[in-house]
Design brief:
Two copies of one chain form a homodimer. By secondary structure, chain A is mainly α. Chain A is 63% helix and 8% strand. The longest helix of chain A is centred in the N-terminal third of the chain and has 25 residues, at 5-29. Chain A is globular. Chain A binds a DNA duplex through residues 34, 49-51, 59-67, 84-89, 150, 152-156.
Chain lengths: 157, 157
DNA sequence: GGATGAGTGTTAACTAGTTGACACATGGGC
DNA sequence: GCCCATGTGTCAACTAGTTAACACTCATCC
């Protein structure tokens, strides 16, 4: 009962961050945090296939496949066939999508920089370095932690 | 684009931890991490109402209400009426539920203590202290972050 | 004592994710 | 050339969460 606390603290921080980020994006530009993440990862891998985007987002291929029509209809994303491989659809961020992402990014940055950097008794960058080290250690020592193949669900009955 | 990285690192750590914890519990005792969390929070507030348990778990009252029958059927939980307030159902952990929780706890503790404590270039306890400070700062400076009332969903269409 | 307001638990309708299956495309062995 | 193994995208069925609405219990206030 003494050791899982760190895990719980991490969960609570993430929950608070998500909730707040979501609220900001909704209020300011009628956008979901989930949509923001989609655009962020696509921007970092523009022209990616659905499979690699799913991998980056940590969700299944099916989840990405189902969301793409919405982004296309709203003009944030276009898809094209891969000239070298007919089974692959390349996903591209449009100018409009990039603009929306940029606006959301600055919104979140300013919102979170103020409370976090101010008046902390320690170095936030150092904290981040330690967390990255922890993450690397976890990924190294815990077997088969590949993204895109999360644990299989098990119903409560 | 430079600042949200800490957020992303936190998300990745939590995802890795969850996935691995879930796998351990499934393999060893056919249990879900979500079920584990339910028992943990109930143990910390035995006899709680569904509303306070939902609050602790960070989910809605409806979610708790729907899960209780499963835990009752498996003998991990019993419910009783509150003698002072007819609208409240008190939820209690059974002996069997406590045993299951204890087994799962030690399982996870030993699994996570090894990779985390070993060969870190910094003090894990100090890291935890800093994270708690960060959490407190976030909860203080970000408005209305009460649990149990998460952001309203917004569909992708 | 009766209206009222707040808190609790449950239900229906919905959302966003999952797994598993499938059809299809590609690249290598043989 | 053919077969096979692998990777991709999509569909159906399902899961676990959500909100909104409801009935209900209680305390309070007049």
């Amino acid at each position: 009962m003494s050791e899982p606390r760190l895990t719980f603290t991490l969960h609570r921080i993430v929950a608070v961050l998500d909730r707040h980020a979501d609220g900001i994006l909704r209020n300011a530009m009628d956008m979901t945090y989930s949509q923001f993440l989609f655009l962020v990862h696509l921007a970092e891998a523009d022209g990616a296939s659905g499979a690699t985007l799913a991998d980056r987002l940590g969700v299944s291929r099916a989840a990405v496949s189902k969301r793409i029509p919405w982004f296309e209809q709203h003009g944030f994303v276009t898809t094209s066939e891969d000239p070298n491989h007919g089974a692959i659809r390349r996903i591209h961020l449009t100018r409009q999508g990039a603009d929306r992402l940029a606006k959301a990014s600055t919104l979140l940055e300013t919102a979170f920089r103020i409370p976090a950097d101010q008046s902390m008794s320690f170095d936030v960058n150092e904290l981040h370095e330690h967390l990255l080290e922890l993450l690397a250690s976890l990924e190294a020592s815990l077997p088969n932690t590949q993204r895109g193949s999360p644990a299989t669900p098990r119903k409560d009955d």
